[in-house]
Amino acid sequence: MESRRDVFQAIADPTRRAILMLLAAQALTPGAIAENFDSSRQTISKHIQILTECELVKPRQDGREIFYYINAKQMSEVANFIEPFRKLWDDRFNKLESIMKNYKSKK
Amino acid sequence: MELKTKIHAEDNQQQLIITREFELPLALLFQAYADAEIVEQWMGTKVLKLENKNHGSFRFETTDPKGNKHYFNGTYHAYVPDTRIVRTFEIENAPFGVQLEYLEFESLTPDTSKLTMQIIYRSADLRDQMLKLPFAQGMNMAHNRLQEIVRKLN
Question: What pTM does this model have?
């Protein structure tokens, strides 16, 4: 359970989610990742470190450069991610329902 | 607590189906999709454009907690009030490509209705990425929700 909690915490941060989205398209060096953000290089490195620690991304040495890529194995272990996805839609629809119920009573 | 929303996603398929029954008459359910002000409230997004007609388009903007803006857009291929919406949906500047969405609105009783949303992605892999990054859509509102989920897990 420890690592699962870490994974949730890792993706709780919008910058880390954005990094995962970038890496979903292609492996990138820390520098290339940082170019996509206004935050400092150090801040982005910290985010990459957290993603690496919970094994959502992995480093790969390529010549003198280190590329980070999405760790498909860890991502597939997170198959229960469908639950947060479902929860997101459920929250949205609950909100829709309560707004429209109010709307109805106002009319 | 049982969630009212169901998601059907089979392995290696490039689609998923979301269903939900509402304690709302059909017309009110559909209106939640048609009225820009209402969409803003429940999607947690700013509606920049919402053209409710065949071949009309829409564009949303959300701002995440750090102030970054994210844009989403799509086009209506079919817009049949109280019945059906067929539309594309795309997160701008993201590697997920365009998804095709079929939304079917049905009346169950005079006071209840059902939405069936079929989402088709470009590939099964892309679908899985979207599932695994559930918060890509509507980042700012999802952020708060996720905090709640994380808190419950802790």
Answer: 0.65
